[in-house]
Amino acid sequence: MIVFRLGRIRTPQGPGMVLLLPFIDSFQRVDLRTRAFSVPPCKLASKDGAVLSVGADVQFRIWDPVLSVMTVKDLNTATRMTAQNAMTKALLKRSLREIQMEKLKISDQLLLEINDVTRAWGLEVDRMELAVEAVLQPPQDSPAGPSLDSTLQQLALHFLGGGMNSVAGGAPLLGPADTLEMVSEVELPAPHVGAGPSPKQPVAEGLLTALQPFLSEALVSQVGACYQFNVILPSGTQSIYFLDLTTGQGRVGHGVPDGIPDVVVDMTEEDLQALLCRELRPLGAYMSGRLKVKGDLAVAMKLEAVLRALK
Q: Model-level pTM greater than 0.70?
């Protein structure tokens, strides 16, 4: 029993009879026995594009009752969320075959990762066992190119309930606003050069060029990434621009960047204007399908720092 006297914590009392002062003492009971819970089966995407339904069984015990009361309000919920997040991150990096063949090894690794977090709460996980309920979709081995980015697949499954479209090569497809498409990395077309620019092309070019006065070494230090924007013009043609925040004060311009971009972003000219005018947020645009990302999603979301600089 953990007793608080006028708000101050006392030495743990019990088991047995404990003397409490009415209206002065408050207490909380702590069960030191080993307990267990199950992580409900959830949909996960493996490295090779397979979709799995995976759960886990976890056994834990409290070794420091004072820490368990003082550091976390809802210990069961916090432990369950920690286990589920660790399981998701670990399976994203492995193929279906590795998950099936090395299930015990993965469980042991997860046990260590979870304990690194929960020991600060006075809690220790004694056992964790993965349970692969079903393979909902086989691996997508595509000869036309590398496998899909599994991080984007996982976000699509988490936020859109498993609705996932993909293209195994070729140029990105434009879908309706309520869908989210992941595309494999493909060789990007050269910048569009025609006999004359489309009427709307100067608008997109002007919007991105207007970023140049706001670029700085501090922004380069904060973002440290190179972006390529494939902007779909109202005429249906595509124009390519770049934003390089890797050296100096950064550069922005028309065409492909000098090196390989960290992130390639596909969007319409109208959405680009809404983004730069801060009428649209990068995460909201991504979740609604108006912004399509090829590359590291976390790096793509650093565009928020660029938009803050426009203030």
A: no
